[in-house]
């Protein structure tokens, strides 16, 4: 998740940056957080699609937050603008520039989390990751990069488009890491496929976009086929 924070108060800037770092870590989000102490420096670096969330103070010198939001909207109609300010007097103007939320300082971490959670519901989950131990180091793996996972010789194997990540753990230890992501389906003993990466289903195989075939256990065939049909139906409902 790409976040920008614009605030000319060094104290408030650091508070929001700390909140953003804590939230990304607790929510398992691969986040990039950029801070700006004035509006002109933000505008110099801004371009459409650069940020998912932009936190703006309103009472800033040079260019106030409302004016800055108008400049953002001229270039980017999709990013979430969230005002953080010491006054509620500008709430109506804030929503005229399609602000997602309006937070009055001092802002609690819980209030920050509630706003971010609402944003996440409307954003693709491309930034979510799991973290596994690979050798002596920990590796972050984006959920959207996973094709399928299997288990071999006491190692969980995470197959992505570009690499194979092996972590010494049981399938029972690994499986809960994916429980919040409904696109993953157990289709064979100790084998899980990412249905987002499936091109088609054959009788006893999933065929992924890159041509790789992931087997379906004979005794699980009916259950797996139904689960995949249900997944396709849910995806169709979510499509615009």
From TrEMBL:
Keywords: DNA-binding, Phosphoprotein
Pfam families hit by this protein: LytTR, Response_reg
InterPro entries attached to this UniProt entry: CheY-like_superfamily, LytR-like, LytTR_DNA-bd_dom, Sig_transdc_resp-reg_receiver
Response regulatory domain boundaries: 2-120
GO molecular function: DNA binding
Domain of life, source organism: Bacteria
4-aspartylphosphate: residues carrying this PTM: 57
Task performed by this protein: May play the central regulatory role in sporulation. It may be an element of the effector pathway responsible for the activation of sporulation genes in response to nutritional stress. Spo0A may act in concert with spo0H (a sigma factor) to control the expression of some genes that are critical to the sporulation process.
Designated name of the protein: Stage 0 sporulation protein A homolog
């Amino acid at each position: 998740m790409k976040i920008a924070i614009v605030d000319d108060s060094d104290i408030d800037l650091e508070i929001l940056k700390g909140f953003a770092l804590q939230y990304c870590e607790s929510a398992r989000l691969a986040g990039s957080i950029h801070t700006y102490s004035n509006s002109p420096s933000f505008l110099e670096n801004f371009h459409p699609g650069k940020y998912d969330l932009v936190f703006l103070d309103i009472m800033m010198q040079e260019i106030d937050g409302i004016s800055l939001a108008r400049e953002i909207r001229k270039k980017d109609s999709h990013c979430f603008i969230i005002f953080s300010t010491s006054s509620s007097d500008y709430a109506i103007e804030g929503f005229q520039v399609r602000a997602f939320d309006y937070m009055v300082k001092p802002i609690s971490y819980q209030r920050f989390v509630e706003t971010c959670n609402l944003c996440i519901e409307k954003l693709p989950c491309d930034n979510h990751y799991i973290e596994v131990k690979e050798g002596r180091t920990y590796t972050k793996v984006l959920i959207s990069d996973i094709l399928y996972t299997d288990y071999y010789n006491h190692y969980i194997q995470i197959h992505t488009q570009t690499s194979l990540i092996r972590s010494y753990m049981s399938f029972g230890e690994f499986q809960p890491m994916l429980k919040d992501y409904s696109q993953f389906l157990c289709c064979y003993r100790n084998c899980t496929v990412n249905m987002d990466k499936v091109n088609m289903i054959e009788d006893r195989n999933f065929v992924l976009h890159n041509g790789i075939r992931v087997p379906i256990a004979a005794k699980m065939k009916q259950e797996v086929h139904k689960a995949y049909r249900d997944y396709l139906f849910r995806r169709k409902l979510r499509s615009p």
